[in-house]
Amino acid sequence: MSALLPVEAAQARLLALREPLSFEKISFSECVGRYTSDDILAQRDQPAAPLSAMDGYAIRFADLPGPWTITGESAAGTAPDRTVGAGEAMRIFTGAMLPDGADTVIVQEDVTADGAALVLSGDGPGARGNHIRARASDFAAGDCLLPAGTRLTPGAIAAAAMSGADQLAVGSRPRVAILTTGDELVQAGRALAPGQIPDSNSPMLAAMLASEPAIVSPPHHVRDDRAILAKALKELARRHDVIVTVGGASVGDHDHVRGALQDAGGNIDFWKIAMRPGKPLIAGTIGDAVLLGLPGNPSSAFVTATLFVLPLVRHLAGARDPLPSIHQAPLATAVDGGGGRRDYLRARLENGRLTPFVGQDSGMTHPLATANALLIRETGAPPCNAGTMADYIVIA
Ligand code: AMP
Ligand code: MG
């Protein structure tokens, strides 16, 4: 039997199967979750002129400690109609342009106004320039706000909007098909005959993909029949960039994904990974589509989707760093030594400490309901005491 492929090697091979899709230009307001195709450069200075950061009075710092004569007002949205001379103060509000002549803002809590007369009644500003947002202090025209290949968060969309963007170039979304196999499966919510179980994997995968830049087709289901499966794969490959099959990836008499992929004219790139759960994962191509054959056990499907399906989708959508980030936290409990494959233990991160669940059977779904981390235990790792630092991936 060929050696099991390490996870990192398998991920690198998978991402090398296809180049990212091309890009499209869309309104920045529709870009959340998408990946930037170009660096996003600011088209303007922000602020474009010095602005007040507080409600108060614009003055000359040299005139402190006052008193002053109030000569006018500067409110947000219009340029001031006069300058501030010696001994003068201009009423000013947050976001309003600083009038020429003024160099400092006194907050209104520090002064007392009586008609046009203004006197200092508090500490006043400690330094010239206090409470002023300098021109381009947020960003300057030409600054790179986000490098290409970055995921657009709501905060990134705020920066793009402020920068003067109208449309942004983002990676196109891969079209993803989910195909379940297994004679025992019934659509969740339907009545079950003896021996049948609800299909939990396709709703889980659809949910995992819901916040990704992907166009996910309604799930397909086929019986454990190699010819029917081959026909379905051929058909799906015409209209999708990614086909995710679930179940039938292993060596049982009813596991037909590899055979059907070959019958349909596809190629297997790799099969069997040095991981637990998820060893039987299949990767290949059929036409222009990439196929990932996940094992059917719910935890196996979840872990392989986290480590392979989501990175593939992100890569095709233009992500620069499509792989899940690995974090570290101390163990809350002792953990046994590792076995012959790397483990991804379903775990809970709480108060900064990791607790792996007692039940790690890959057929279980209940642990998935509350797991928020996958605790990584390397092949042959020694047993660890509570407090030892451990690697994990965030999954919720
Ligand atoms: P398989 O990978 O087809 O050998 O299936 C392994 C285990 O996962 C079996 O117990 C299947 O009943 C179960 N299984 C396969 N597909 C699904 C699915 N879509 N939802 C829930 N369980 C599944
Ligand atoms: Mg099966």
Explain this structure.
With 396 residues, the chain is of the alpha/beta class. It has helices spanning 7-16, 154-162, 201-210, 226-239, 257-263, 298-316, 366-370; strands at 23-27, 40-41, 51-52, 56-59, 68-74, 88-92, 104-107, 111-114, 117-120, 132-133, 144-146, 167-171, 175-181, 185-187, 197-199, 215-216, 220-222, 242-246, 267-271, 275-276, 282-286, 289-294, 327-330, 342-350, 353-356, 373-377, 389-394. The chain folds into four domains: 7-20 and 173-316, 3-Layer(aba) Sandwich (Molybdenum Cofactor Biosythetic Enzyme, Chain A); 23-43 and 146-171, Molybdopterin biosynthesis moea protein, domain 2 (Alpha-Beta Complex); 51-133, Molybdopterin biosynthesis moea protein, domain 3 (Molybdopterin biosynthesis moeA protein, domain 3, Beta Complex); 327-394, MoeA, C-terminal, domain IV (Beta-clip, Beta Barrel), CATH 2.40.340. It has seven helices and 27 strands. The strands form seven sheets. Strands 13, 16, 17, 18, 19, 21 and 22 form a seven-stranded mixed β-sheet that branches. A six-stranded mixed β-sheet has the order 7-4-6-5-9-8, with no helix packed on it. Strands 20, 23, 24, 25, 26 and 27 form a six-stranded mixed β-sheet that branches. A hairpin with a 2-residue loop joins strand 21 (282-286) and strand 22. The radius of gyration is 30 Å and the shape is elongated. The structure holds adenosine monophosphate and magnesium ion. The site of magnesium ion has 7 residues, from loops. Magnesium ion binds next to loops.
